[in-house]
From TrEMBL:
Its EC number(s): 2.3.1.30
InterPro entries per UniProt: Hexapep, Hexapep_transf_CS, LbH_SAT, Ser_AcTrfase_N, Ser_AcTrfase_N_sf, Ser_O-AcTrfase, Serine_acetyltransferase, Trimer_LpxA-like_sf
GO cellular component, one term: cytoplasm
Domain Serine acetyltransferase N-terminal as annotated: residue spans: 14-118
Native source species: Jannaschia aquimarina
Protein name (record): Serine acetyltransferase
């Protein structure tokens, strides 16, 4: 007689924490219990919860919930890295945004997190030459969340978009890992040129509210872009730029500006004089 071992369930600390928080939400605020059950507690995995949220938020009369769920489920099954990046995004929001008190908050209510996850599915479609469906996801993400990210853009993990209103990211933009940006940021082009025409944002960069970064320029890792700046030239790593047009005004001030979220910029001469 052979003994059969029960399969070991992989440990997913983030998902376990989300479910625990959801149980508390239902207890403390039963009026939204139905939404919390539908969005979290009815699902066996983080991936299935993401699929549901994606479909529930973007569905229209033209493209229903079930069809969008099938698309998202296919994406997560074929490319598990999408969900891993989503986990990193979720942790980034929780750690950097003082308004986020629980992981489940971002999943349920924070449109910056939700918009990035919608982009990730749109990008998966784009990479597989399913451009029309990718454009549908981009269009609905813009309509629902006020965040317009071209599905051709390349975005790393650990991304935090605070408030997430009027964000624009162009087709050939590249965003590294652990980047934070605030509302009304534009990563755009400078005219009607084609080909590679959008900014390349390094790892650990902090982009302040209303900043415009335009053209095929390089923003060095762990740099800071002050709120309201218009950046038209390359920025070296670990520098702070401010102004219209933006100029270097000092060092970045810390090793990881995107994590520290320190936006207080002293406009001193970078030479120290």
């Amino acid at each position: 007689m052979s003994l059969q071992k029960n399969p070991v369930r992989p440990v997913d600390f983030i998902w376990d924490q989300i479910k625990s928080e959801a149980t508390d939400i239902v207890r403390d605020e039963p009026v939204i219990g139905g939404m919390v059950h539908a969005s979290i507690l009815h699902h066996s995995t983080f991936e299935r919860a993401l699929s549901h949220r994606f479909a529930a938020k973007l569905a229209t009369d033209e493209m229903g919930v079930q069809l969008l769920r099938e698309i998202a489920d296919e994406a997560f099954a074929e490319d598990p890295d999408i969900a891993q990046r989503a986990r990193a995004d979720l942790v980034a929001v929780y750690e950097r945004d003082p308004a986020c008190q629980q992981l489940s908050q971002a999943l349920l209510f924070f449109k910056g997190f939700q918009a990035i996850q919608s982009y990730r599915i749109g990008h998966w479609l784009w990479e597989r030459k399913r451009s029309h469906l990718a454009y549908f996801v981009q269009n609905r993400t813009s309509e629902v969340f006020g965040v317009d990210i071209h599905p051709g853009a390349k975005i790393g993990q650990g991304i935090m978009i605070d408030h997430a209103h009027s964000i624009v990211v162009g087709e050939t933009a590249v965003i590294g890992d652990n980047v934070s940006m605030l509302h009304s940021v534009t990563l755009g082009g400078t005219g009607k040129e084609h080909d590679d025409r959008h900014p390349k944002i390094g790892d650990g960069v902090l982009i302040g509210a209303g900043a415009k970064v335009l053209g095929n320029i390089q923003i060095g890792h762990c740099s800071r872009i002050a709120a309201g700046s218009v950046v038209l030239e390359d920025v070296p790593p670990m520098k702070t730029v401010a102004g219209v047009p933006a100029r270097i005004v000092g060092e970045a001030g810390c090793a990881q500006p995107s994590v520290m979220m320190d936006q207080l910029i002293g406009l001193r001469d970078p030479s120290g004089d």
